[in-house]
Structures are given as structure tokens and as C-alpha cells.
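Minutes, project check-in
Item: structure for the 722-residue chain
Input as provided by the requester:
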Amino acid sequence: MQVLKFGGSSVADATRMSRVLDIVLDAAARDRVILVSSAISGCTDALIEIGATADSERRTQQIEALRRRHRAIARRLFTGAERERMYAELDGLFSELAAAEPEACVSFGELFSTRILAYKAACEGFSTQWLDARELVRTRDGAVDEEQTYSRIRAAVQAAPEVQLFVAPGFIASDENGCVTTLGRGGSDYSAALFAAGAGASVLEIWTDVPGLMTANPKVVPAAVTIPDISYRAALSLAENGAKVLYAPTVGPAMKAGIAFSIRNTFDPRHPGTLVSGRPPVPEGAWMGVTSRSVPERGEAVVCLVGEAVSSRSTAAGRILSALAEAGIQPLGEVTGEGDCFFIRVRPTVEQAAVGAIHHEFFEHRRVTVIPVFIAGYGAVGHELVRLIGLSAARIERRRGRSIRIAGLSDSRRFVVDLRGIPPGEADARLSAGQSAADGAFIDAVLAAAPRGSVFVDCTDDHFLHRRYAELFRGALGIVTSNRRSLALPYVQYAALKTEARQNGVFFRYDTTVGNALPILESLASDANCSDGIESIEAVISCTLNAIITAYDGERGESFATLLRRAQDEGLTESDPRTDLGGKDVLRKLLILAREAGVPLEAEDVEISPMLGPEFFDCPLDEFYRRLVACEPQFIAREAELDAAAQRQRFVASLRRDPAARLGYRAEIKMQRVDPESPFYRISGTENVIVVRSEYSAPLVIKGAGEGVRLAATGIIKDILM
């Protein structure tokens, strides 16, 4: 018998439930399984709120919202008659919830999730039986009656020898009077251990959203690593003193029954996680982890360091005090504890810093800062970024004392997350074997797993990914983006993102959105935030149009239509090149430039004069090219006219101070003729040029390559390391 328990984040939606069933049904092919599940993520909190709501109308609305969420999962998992049957079963449970006493509401979440899982497994052809934990797990005087509980579980399993898969709700039980009760937040882990002990299981696995017990909370200490194996006693010490991955009462039943159990990551099933067992202590001594817990009634926090077979308590205590002193932290007393546990009290304001300092002393052997990076977008720029991270790793570590670790990678279809790191050379294979990225699953996985100090990199051209940026900021991730669509938003949204990053103490960097790796935005922001106000910005920043316009040579070269179609075929333009010709991409860049200069420019403030007339934009693409070919004589005549005047034409975006304009600045994008004295005259290919004039300084001219995947990837690495 095997017992597999899955937490709320593991069953949060239909995609994740499917992943859980893949793991469970694979295990069921080897031996019988008891699947123990928590409620879907956020459900228990919603049920507590429902139970506390006195207003009947409001309560009905809350129940309906939760019902819709579960029906949405059922809609994705089932079809036809199976879907209708699942709907009917859920509706029955929600009717019971509506009639339940307030204190009983919290017990329904696990009923919802396990009913869905059990029915889905049955539909997949597995002999499945749902077990009612309320009938099996019994408590007396507030504690689990283990003898009665084990007897009931054993009888239920033995009564159904033909069943391959049992599904049971965690967290819930019944007391000696038959009233429904719970085992406390995190109690589903405890339920799983009780089922394992009662059924005489040989395997107990706790599946969660992190890769096992770690040497510290990775959201506090990015350098934390998974503890491969640990004793029951040490695991219990960590759990009792703040390690939230494991619910402390879980250890007791497993330890008494002698069942080794593992803590695994649902999002990375190949990771072995942590094995908790009764193994003998490490002879030479070893350190397991450091954690902390708040003691608000005393206005302090207690940091706990746990080891195995520690040879000298006095030496360890001295190292703890030395590490805190080096970090400038004054403890509130001496090191206390006994055996292999060490406790030190500190002020709450330095709790996380104290954990980091002690972890550094006992667990980090190299003074290299690891930066976990999660990359969204695996097109040309994403590929090059991964390649350059691999090529430059040794140099960056040697010169900067930092290491970029690819902890997650996603394209539009699949994603992989591995906090141990994804070697650049394995990225393609790991991604192709990854999980579905549908419905924002990659962002969800990043938010669940990312250590504090991680960086999210947006290499996509996605129109909507920016909607998740605020969540990432609140999850303590910095963001580096080359996706200018994420910044060319209405100003209020742009400002809100900047504020969200600042309030959460993380960075938001996007230097590659304009001018690729050129130092444009940092120069603008530097002037705008100092006393030297911006008078004007003039910019030739459309790589697409620059390449076509500078290559066009009238009757001496290829036609304008030929050059444009080639650029389209090579992917230099949008799928419809009129997007570029109409100035939309230049508009996005101008908005970013203006806002970095301190001008809250909106798209409607910009006057755009496309390089072609309106008749080119109101027809199918094939007709557009026919009209372009027909106009070639006009293009040739205009080029000859420019040659005669020693001029050239450029598509220029400009922002100029104008007291009569709404914002005190006038913005426009149009084709302009330039003379040999202009910085725009001698550009070629995809070069960009920006001229910034300010109140007191001489004009600043920035010129260089504005396109190229290597330059973009290099700029992103620079933003990561800044």
C-alpha cells in the first residue's frame, strides 16, 4: 500500500489535478494507493469567511463564487454525461454547505476536491473508492484516537481488496460524539500519516509545491537547498520551529509505525525531495536547517538551528553569535536549547536577516550570490539568453561574485521549474518534456516556488503577461522585460506597476525595450530625476523602417515592395508589416521614452503621420503589396528629389517642450527630411539614434545597433546583474 498526499496548490485547478492523477495512477500501476488531498488552493480561507458571514445574501454570493470555481474545474476535466454527473454531485455538496452550521463550513473543501479526483480516476478506468475521513479518523478530547482510527482505516481497506485507488479527504475527522471536526491547518499531512499507519503502508509521500524540506525558507534565503535525508527527530524540530513545509504532528504516526516518508514537489516529480526516516544520526555530525518563528506576545522572534549528532554545542553557539555579530545583529540573549537544537532570540525586524546570516555561516561554503532566474519566452532572444548565461557563467562568477541560475523556463506551450537549476545545454530537452503552460500555469508555478531575490525575465511579445507583473512583485521577484507591450500601457497602469515594484522592495528594469542594449533609458531617467530638465527628444528607433529606408536606393536598387516583403519574410516586421509602417511600434517606444523623461504621455497625445497614405491600410495584404508596386515610380521620383537636395528621409519620433500642449510637451511621429549635419543622416541598417536636449547640458547623442538577439540577451543579463 502507498499513501500519496497532495496540498492545495497541487490541486488548485484542472491542469494541476490532471498532473496529480498522472503521478497517482503511475504509482497505482505498482501497488494500491490511498490518495489524500487538501482543498483546492484558497478554498479553506473562503469557507472560513463563509462560516463567519451573518448576512444571508452575502453568504449566498460567497458560496456561489466557490461553486463556480469547482464547476470550472469539472468543466475542464469531464465531458458529456460524466460532466453532468459531476456537476450534480458538486451541486449536492454545495446545497449541504448552504445548510451547514457556521462551524461546519470549513470541513467541505476537502470533500469537493476529493470527489472530483475520485470520479476522474474512475472515469480513467481505475477501480476507485472514495473514503469518508469523517467516518474513519476519530478524535477524543481534542486528540486523535489512534487505536480506533487505525482499526477503522484497516477495516475499510481490507473490505475492498479489488480497489486499486482509494481517495480520502485530508484535514477532517469526527469527534467522540460523531460531530465533524478538523485536524488543524496543515492537517492533511497528518491525515496522510494516519492513513499510512492504519493501512500498514510501505510508502508515504507528501506532495507539495517545493522540492522537500530545505535548509531555510527559500523565499528568505535564495541559497537554500533541499535536505536530501533527515531523521524524524530533526524534521520534527524544524517543523515545530517554523518550517511550514511539514505539519509537525505528521511525524508522530510515521515514526511510531517506522514508515519512512518523503516530501516531494508536484511541479517537479523527478526531484527526489527529502526522505524523513529513522536512520541513525550522522557519525561526524551534520547541519540540517535553520528556521524561525515569531513570538508576538513577547515582541521577539526565535531562530532555530537544527543539526544531527553535533559534536560540540559550545563551538556551534560561538559560530551562531559570530555570524550575527558579523551581520550587525544584536541578539536578545544567549544561545539556548539542548541536544542538536540551538535557539537564539532576536528582534522581529531582523528575523529574516538573522536566518540569512546563520544559514550563510553553516550552509554556504562559497561567497557567491546565486540569482534564480525564471525566463518566459523561448524564441530567438530567449534561446540566446539561455546560451549566453551558459557561456558567461564562469566569467560572471569570477568578476562579479554572482551566479545566474536558470530556475524556470517557458514558451507558449510548456514550462519547466527546477530550483536546482536547468543547465543551459539541457534547456531544450527539459522544456519539451515540461508541463502545460496553459492558463498562466508558469506564473502560478513561479509564484509558488520562487525564492526571495529571484528575477522574472519577460522575453515574450505577449500582450497580456504584464497583468501578472503585480503578483510577481508581491511575490518578491524583480522583473526584467524586453517586451515593450508591457510598458506601452495607459499611464495609470504603467505608474501602478512602478509603484508596486517600489513598495515591494524589488526592481523593474526594461532597458532593452528601446534601443536594445544602448544606454538610452538610464540616461533619460538620470537627467529627468536631476535638476537638468528635458527640453526635447528626437529619435529614429524603428529598426524595421530604418533597415528598409536606408536600403532603398530608388531606381538603382530593389523596389520598396521587394525590400519590405523580404523584411517580412525574415521576421523583421510584424506579421502585417503595416503595423510598422503605421508607426505603432515607434509609438510604444516613444511612450516609454517620454515617461522615463518624466512626461506622463498617453497614446492619444501623439500625432502620427504614417509613411504611407490611408489607402494602403484599408485593404487586404495582397492588395496592399499591389498598390505598393504601383506606387514605385513615385518612390523613385522622391528618392531622386532627395538626392538632388543632398537629403535623406527618416521616420522620426519627437517630444518637444510646448507650453500650449496638454502636458507641456508636443509629441509626434512622422517622416522627415534630414541634412548631412543631422545625426540621423548617416545611419544604416537597424541602427538607432536618439538625441536628447536638456536645459543646461549639451545635446546627448546616443547611436548604435538597435536590433540583434545577442545584443538583447546581453542587455537582459546586464539588467539582471545591475
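Outcome recorded: The chain has a mean pLDDT of 91.
No further action items on this chain.
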